[in-house]
User: What shape does this take?
Amino acid sequence: MSDTLFELPPPVEPEQRPRIKPRPRVLTPNREQVELRAVDLEGLLPMDHRARIVWQFVEGLDLSVLYDSIQAVEGGSGHPATDPRILMALWLYGTLEGVGSARALDRLTGQHDAYRWICGGVPVNYHTLADFRVGNMALLDDLLTSSVATLMAEGLVEMNRVAQDGVRVRASAGAPSFRRRQTLEECLKEAGEQVAQLRREVHEDPGAASRRQGAARQRAAKERQERVARALARMPEAEAKKRKQGKKEEGKQQARVSTTDPEATIMKMADGGFRPAYNAQFATDTDSQVVVGVEVIQNGSDQGQMAPMIEQLEHRYEKLPNSFLIDGGYVNHKDIDEVSEKDCIVYAPIPKPKKSQRDPHEPLPDDSPAVAEWRRRMGTDEAKEIYKLRAATAECTNAQARNRGLQRLPVRGWWRVRAVLLWFALAHNLMRMIALRAAQVAATA
Assistant: This one.
């Protein structure tokens, strides 16, 4: 008799039982949940973070010109303005980090802790950032002068030797935007007709489009008309350059100017190609590697730029360097005569003579006393050792600017380009100031 009520199936051997693999336990994302976070902006960055250093530097600047221009005052109406110190610190820090776009800087203020810390909860937008970068060139120029003068007063910058070098930077314009005179005149006529038509539409039917859209279209057409007018105004200069080069005004040889950036010029770049560009000039103190002078020119050649830079330094600091180091592209006998009259010694390589048997350091019969002295000087071992400092300073400054994003200019127009270069100079000098002061403290400790 069975011990069970029903018959049981025969037992299954252990090795015959089916093996079921258990499911792994994982944490899956739930992006619909609501999180409440307590964020301490002050605790986001370490005490030695670069953003804190930039803010400390900006707090010491005299920005009274910017504060005086703010119309919203205590006890009055109007929305409060963004603190100019925030905008100044954002652009200085962004320049050091290689951020050259106002829209990119705007995004970072909401995504990156360092930029959020600088803002401190104050909202900014790309339009305000873009206007601030190029709208205060006079202030930036004064800040460069005052910051270098402060370092000179502290004994960190002596400006005994200054090296100058140029770097060609791609302009924000394409080669197809360069047009001949006849095409520019046609474009100017079309732009004028478009502006007049938009004005008639707004006057006859204000409800045809929203007020904002209509204003934007009219503003864009007006800006295009102004750019074409500036291109035509620069056409005589381009035509004179063609005639000086001995090129016939026929077909492809006709002078052209860009309708996108009329101040840009086609230049030969470092890779051998020809593109629209500006020639950025930096003058750097050889001992401290501090940028003491900034200029931008519309010519691909550096020749003739030494004397204007010397005048700029004299105007800025009421002092001239004892010696000036330049490469062969700057060599100009007239400039050497002019600079030597100011008791400034020029160090520049001697051009290779046409006759191989002639000693390049031997003065020529028609050389002025200053040029003859320059030739003899560059033949000495002392001058050769001094000239080696040029590459270690001027070219180093240009390389650091390249690494910080000075590859292609994000703005158009000579005035705006110079403002961008001043931002690079101020950011560069800020880091040099920190290094120089740290070295001074270490030396006196």
Remarks:
- The chain has 14 helices and eight strands.
- The longest helix spans residues 211-244.
- The chain has three domains: 41-68+82-134, 137-172+274-444, 175-258.
